[in-house]
Every structure is written in structure tokens, then in C-alpha cells.
Specification:
The chain has about 120 residues and is mainly alpha-helical. About 60% of the residues lie in helices and about 5% in strands. It contains five helices and three strands.
């Protein structure tokens, strides 16, 4: 696993770590089941605070990119169908929420398009 952190970049270091690990997992450079370094180990190798790496790992775990198996370590999680199931669940929750808020289907769709556009243009 190779990560490059640019302190002078506009993205926070934890976000750079999160984005690079997520991209390497999606591309297959980090295969499913790959054991990631410990928080402290990665922090030391990158010259960052352990809290920075812990924040990135928490975000990655929340996104389903990695999974922590207690004392056994942190691993790249399976993607594909599991990620699609999670996305479907999030979409269902969103649909129920906007319906309760009284938005039309067009308004709800426009909000999703805007959010996706903003997320993918980062």
C-alpha cells in the first residue's frame, strides 16, 4: 500500500488517507482481505498523528471499504454486492425521508443529482 500525503493541499490529511485507501480498494490494488497497517504504524510511516489515521479508518469503515476485526486487525472489506445493498438501503431511507418531508419526486431527484454531482467532482 502506497500513500502520499500533501500537507499543502486543500484536502485535510485524513481525507487524503481515506480517499487514497478507498481508491486503491476500489481499483483492486488493495485486494479484499488485505490487512491494513495499524493506526499507529501507518501514522508513524506517514508522519501524521494517530488520531488522523483513526479518523480516516472510521470514515472508511462507515463507508464499508474496510472492516475491523477486533484484535485481529483492519482489513479491506468485500465490495460489489455488499456495497450495492448498502446503497440500496440508503436510497430507501432517503426516499422515505423526502416523502415524509413532502418533497415531490422531481425535487427529491434534483437533490440527489446535486449531491452526487458535488461528491463526484471533488
Amino acid at each position: 500500500m502506497t500513500l502520499k500525503i500533501h500537507i499543502d493541499e486543500s484536502a485535510a490529511p485524513y481525507e487524503q488517507v481515506r480517499a487514497q485507501i478507498a481508491e486503491q480498494a476500489r481499483s483492486g490494488a488493495l485486494p479484499v482481505g488485505y490487512r491494513l497497517p495499524t493506526v499507529r504504524g501507518l501514522a508513524e510511516s506517514l508522519g501524521l498523528a494517530a488520531n488522523t489515521i483513526a479518523k480516516a479508518y472510521r470514515a472508511l469503515e462507515g463507508d464499508g471499504v474496510i472492516e475491523t476485526r477486533g484484535r485481529n486487525g483492519t482489513f479491506v472489506a468485500a465490495s460489489g454486492p455488499a456495497a450495492e445493498r448498502e446503497a440500496a438501503g440508503a436510497a430507501q431511507a432517503y426516499a422515505e425521508r423526502v416523502l415524509r418531508l413532502g418533497l415531490t419526486e422531481q425535487q427529491a431527484s434534483a437533490a440527489v443529482r446535486d449531491a452526487l454531482r458535488a461528491a463526484y467532482e471533488r
